[in-house]
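ARCHIVE CARD
CATEGORY: sequence design from structure
SOURCE FIELD: tokenized fold
FIELD CONTENT:
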């Protein structure tokens, strides 16, 4: 039986609680002052959707079904631990991304750098609170990255140390960092319209699509011993779905309901995100609107009227419609790849198809 998202979430959360408690004990054994490093993570860590962990489990079950070795529940604890390590990698990326963007909230909670700033102010430390917050977030993000590596390497899966698996793990970690740099570069180096859309899609692929969808699926499948043909088919599904997933995120970053997204409306506009939607907007806007978009994008003090104006430009220029259409096309491409999977995988394939609709139609 294919594991449900609810089952995976419960198992992953239990692993994270156990792991974080152990890391907290290690930190406080060094110094009681180090408790803050793990305390700040708790509110953010336990509000995740567990998308990456679930995809890793389903990738494993897909490959196991193809090989005729699919196990009934319960899920192997070693697999759950391997999948859980991806949630720590994700948290590391979120912490650093929020710090670089200067974001105030994430999942309806203060971001990690803001928590460290508040800690600085509360205890009336000397020096600059903002600098203390950024430094604290940098360290916390690095810790989560290291913990992710530690959790995976100690998961106990038979193939965890195989070259095929380690290659995927290495690419997953490096690609998201390269994508993060390209995202930062895009915010500071405007490109002509004929190049901006391609550059924005490259950011989507490497900063999010690969490590959020494609690589977790590939990792799970490789842990089950998938051959190259199966891995290729999985990639043909995961890559376009991952891109569509991020495009939905970009739309929600501008048009989403803050009560559902956990982030202020228009936060991506204030941080100056050069998304695919913004690239489409600039390509279709009038010269005057384009100048206004360029002047307003990245202004942290945008008010509700400013955000409303930019939303109007995005809609009038066709930026929103083109993004939605691209998302639909990518999702259809992803789902068509599922037809190439062997019939033995039908149950897992059905789960992946249903989940693809959830990812691209979500409101948060």
């Amino acid at each position: 039986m294919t594991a449900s998202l609810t089952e995976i979430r419960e198992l992953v959360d239990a692993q994270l609680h156990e792991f974080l408690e152990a890391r907290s004990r290690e930190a406080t054994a060094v110094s009681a002052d180090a408790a803050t490093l793990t305390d700040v993570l708790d509110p953010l860590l336990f509000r995740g959707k567990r998308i990456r962990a679930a995809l890793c489990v389903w990738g494993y079950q897909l490959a196991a079904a193809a090989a005729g070795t699919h196990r009934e529940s319960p899920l192997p604890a070693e697999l759950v631990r391997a999948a859980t390590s991806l949630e720590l990698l994700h948290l590391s990326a979120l912490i650093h991304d929020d710090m670089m963007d200067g974001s105030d909230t994430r999942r309806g909670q203060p971001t990690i750098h803001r928590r460290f700033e508040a800690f600085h102010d509360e205890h009336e430390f000397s020096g600059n609170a903002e600098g203390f917050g950024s430094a604290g977030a940098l360290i916390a993000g690095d810790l989560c990255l290291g913990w992710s590596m530690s959790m995976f390497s100690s998961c106990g899966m038979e193939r965890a140390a195989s070259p095929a698996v380690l290659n995927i793990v290495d690419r997953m970690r490096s690609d998201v960092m390269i994508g993060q740099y390209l995202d930062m570069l895009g915010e500071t180096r405007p490109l002509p319209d004929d190049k901006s859309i391609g550059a924005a899609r490259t950011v989507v692929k490497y900063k999010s699509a690969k490590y959020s969808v494609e690589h977790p699926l590939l990792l799970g499948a490789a842990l089950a011993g998938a051959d190259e043909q199966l891995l290729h088919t999985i990639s043909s599904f995961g890559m376009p779905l991952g891109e569509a997933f991020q495009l939905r995120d970009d739309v929600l970053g501008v048009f989403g309901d803050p009560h559902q997204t956990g982030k202020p409306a228009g936060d991506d506009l204030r941080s100056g995100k050069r998304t695919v939607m913004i690239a489409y907007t600039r390509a279709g806007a009038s010269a005057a609107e384009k100048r206004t978009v360029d002047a307003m994008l990245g202004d942290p003090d945008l008010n509700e009227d400013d955000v409303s104006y930019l939303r109007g430009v995005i809609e009038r220029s066709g930026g929103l419609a083109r993004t939605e259409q691209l998302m639909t096309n990518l999702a259809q491409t992803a789902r068509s790849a599922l037809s190439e999977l062997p019939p033995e995988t039908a149950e897992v394939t059905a789960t992946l198809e249903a989940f693809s609709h959830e990812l691209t139609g979500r409101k948060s």
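CARD ANNOTATION: Strands lie at 105-106, 109-110. Residues 159 and 317 are 50 Å apart (CA to CA).
SHELF: design records, drawer C
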